[in-house]
User: What shape does this take?
Amino acid sequence: MEGGYDTVVVATEPAPRRAGAPALLELRGIVKRWPKAPAPVLDAVDFLVRRGEVVAISGRNGAGKTTLLRVAAGLLAADAGTVRIAGLDPERHRAACQARIGYLAAGNSGLYGRLRVEQHLQFWARLALMPRWRRDEAIAAACETFALDELRGSRVDRLSMGQRQRVRLALALLHGPDLALLDEPRTSLDDEGTEILRRAVRRLTVRGGSVVVCAPTAEDAGIPFDRCELIAGGTMVGA
Amino acid sequence: MSALILHAQAAAAVFRRDLAIFTSYRMRLVTTVVATLVTLTIFYYVSRLVRSEAIGSPDAYYAFAVIGILSLSVLSAALSRPVATLRSEQLAGTFERMVVSPFGAVRCVISLLLFPLALAFVTATVSLFFAVVLFGLRLRWPEALAGIPVALLGALAFAPLGLLMTAAVIVFKQTNAGATFVLTACTLLAGVYFPVSLLPAGVRWASEVQPLTPSVDLLRNILVGTPLDDAVPVALLKLVLFPAVMFPVAICALRAAVRHGRRRGTITEY
Assistant: This one.
């Protein structure tokens, strides 16, 4: 199956990190230009994330952080350049790449106010094309990781903003992606929520996954990272 | 588990999600059914005024109009509801999530047709039952079961139009005017309220190039015995040909719309 849920990875020890580890996300020469905009929002950006790495991308508002994340997530197509997810071309292996990616958009969108938390989890697990045995297990794990057990029966429009953010994080990581692309994940989270986020990131990296987190400043990332890239004027300007 | 089953489960999840949201508004089913019943009631009294050689008795006109109205409600469900749902998805930011899901944007959008069509079927069946009980509509009961596959075929024929409208929503966002125009044009050309034979000869050809005409004609013939202009196999062939030709076109349009949105960056806009 292309989706890639045939095996369960049980992590026992931290995966190899940094130099030498294989690339999980590889962006080469990415150009993205908005129609009628004078300059490209991304201008020949190279960006590489290795297995086990947590990378923060910081930059001013409008610098291109979210656009970069959206290109990596497959939400936007680059005008030029190549994207590889675990070596795969997302344009040719869309479902396989999407199964490897967990994407959290910025803000507090992406939820159905009238549905309960449990219904969200069931819905998105099915849209992730997870087999039943994997689904039940993943939902239980997500509820445990993001402290959602008590909220499973609650309608989303009755949750606080912080609780909704935990639901959004749970949905982004529900299918056990290798690569988490998190756009300002700390939005609305209190200290406990931030700790939950850190724990989830740790679990992901321990099993060899990688995380890219976008935030205006490195401090806003809310999670410990291995390196921080600064983006300005559509290009990476260093750490 | 085969990929086909997982895809079917994902499509079913979209159906269940739409059902859950629909039923979370308690009065929605009631108002949907009541609105149709009121329309049937209005047309009952209008039919009392009809004395036409083209149709026959007031009862014959009522039967003619009821089948037309209920068929139109299914077409309307295929055209309007998926568009409205997709707009809600865009505004709520859930469409973004669909685009990045392994099930994918195109399959998600196709699945958006399932619940509105099922609901329209249920509402039409309930309404037909009421027309029989309250207003004495004479159904041909022995043939009535044959109406089910024809109605399903009709819904299948309407689906590509709904998909084309959703493709337009992805590109242009607001397409209410387009859906209303298509519905109004189909209503006029398919003879929902009057026989197509009354149309000027110069525009009558247009009633043959959209799916509502053969669908409503066949259903009238099967359910209430209105004579068909074409032979049954010809009307059936028209009903089969439309989705056979238009489904691939609609899916290509939908794919192109998603590609366009990803390239232009408008897929995340609303």
